[in-house]
Amino acid sequence: MEDTKELKVFRKTWRKEVSVSKSWRALAEDELLWCRQCQKHGYYTESSVLDISNWKAVFRESRREEQTLKHNWKNRVGKLQQLQYSIGGVLRAVATCQNLIVAGYSTGYVKLWDISTDDSPDIIIETSHDALGLPDDTASPVQHVAMNPSITAAAFANGTLDVWRTGGSHSPLFTSSSSEPISGVAVAHNKPVVAVATGSRVKKFAGDRSQAWTLTVFDTGSRVSFLEFVDGDARVGVASNATEVVTFGDGQTTQLHALLHQTCTCIATGHGMVACGVTERGYCEQHQVKLFLADQERFLYNLSGHQWDVTCVNLRLSPENCLVSGCRDSKVRLFDLRAGHGPVVTFQGHAAPVSTVQCDEWKIVGGGTDGMLVVWDQRMKAKLWEMHNRHPVRFAQFEKQMLVTAHVPDDAFSDDAEDVEMVALRQNMGCLLVYDFSIEQLRDDLPDVCLSTYREPEGFNYNIGLAMPYGAL
């Protein structure tokens, strides 16, 4: 169905209530037209026109749900759930993939939650330590966790790596041990490939359908500090040590950037690019983000404007041509890669270094070592709301309706202390929080006058939609 002149005119006037002829009404009810409108706005992109009937109603309902979800995000309306595991000890690491959340604890336990439904059972994943039947008090703390739709990986303080099938068997697919501690773990985004950094070496394990794992070892020359896979390519990864940033793949390593009188503070990949936070030491100290093309291993340009060390960068989960960074100066900066090499907007709201950031088309979520989680509106350049916890925000990731945050203590608290009260013990274990903004928590005992439909309510903390005392009268 080609775009005719009448169809172009209709697209400009379809929102208005006008009297139309039968031919116009037939055009207004055309299934293919509304199917294209749905897919243009990102709804049911994988469905064909014959899969769903009444595309017009589907489009209207999808738009209404999107507006409600955006309103709930802005006003912090939704359901807050804390995922607890009291016998797990101190929370040490968290990762998410779709509706699954995996967490590692100081007692060596690894737990998996499915947040798609409220009645989904919590799963305690069996580690290699449990499979051997060793005593619980000899278990090693979890240091890193990572997951993708295929596999879930956890690294322990004793150098052990366990890998499971995501959402499948609770027993490890394979286990690897190292005499050196593991400094980083990364998984490919869509394939059963995992890489671990031990000392100066990077070990890459690739699985196949027969559950056979192939090991490839890369030596970078000095201790690896950061480890990531290039987005969309399970063969190539990026690692950083004290002297250089390298890519590893096809049995060899290639230098991406030499750190001469410089320090790499963070690494991120996404949209075919590699972003490195770099601090140049010397008489004139500089702090910037260096961008590279991953497939061509070519330098693009520097992103400047930082006043201190760049502590985190998000490229993969950001919109195309956008990059968001967090800095030790407690500020979050948004870059548009089409608008120059400086920040488009700088956001304030933290009192300590920023530890994690993420953005989409209209909002930015940032977490700091001060325990503050802040949400900003990009267009208004203003803070929408904030939440505080006593422990630093080490993980914060959101999708359309879900926000998952992990407040991880700096020091592992001893859960064997007998002179500490249970309340104080739980306060020092950290917490894992899930926000669901698609659910409106309305109290049944509130009168109708307190349930006005104003879009900018004053009392959003209590889900009372009032902009004035008698809004519903």
The helix count comes to 6
- Residue share in β-strands: 35-45%
Number of strands: 32
The average pLDDT score comes to 81
Q: Indicate the overall shape.
A: globular
Radius of gyration: 25 Å
Q: Ranges with pLDDT <50 over ≥5 residues? A: 414-421, 454-473
Main beta-sheet strand count, sense and barrel state: 4 strands, antiparallel
End-to-end C-alpha gap? 49 Å
The structure class reads mainly beta
Share of helical residues: 10-25%
Strand order of the largest sheet: 1-32-31-30
Overall description:
The protein is mainly beta. The protein is 12% helix and 40% strand. It is built from 6 helices and 32 strands. The chain is globular.
Topology, pairings included?
Blueprint: H1 5-13, H2 22-28, H3 31-40, H4 55-75, E1 79-83, E2 91-97, E3 100-105, E4 110-114, E5 123-125, H5 128-131, E6 142-147, E7 151-156, E8 160-165, E9 174-177, E10 182-187, E11 193-198, E12 201-207, E13 213-219, E14 226-229, E15 237-240, E16 244-249, E17 252-258, E18 262-270, E19 273-280, E20 286-293, E21 298-303, E22 310-314, E23 322-327, E24 331-336, E25 345-348, E26 354-359, E27 363-368, E28 372-377, E29 382-388, E30 393-398, E31 402-407, H6 422-427, E32 431-436
Antiparallel strand pairs: 1-32, 2-3, 3-4, 4-5, 6-7, 7-8, 8-9, 10-11, 11-12, 12-13, 14-15, 15-16, 16-17, 18-19, 19-20, 20-21, 22-23, 23-24, 24-25, 26-27, 27-28, 28-29, 30-31, 31-32
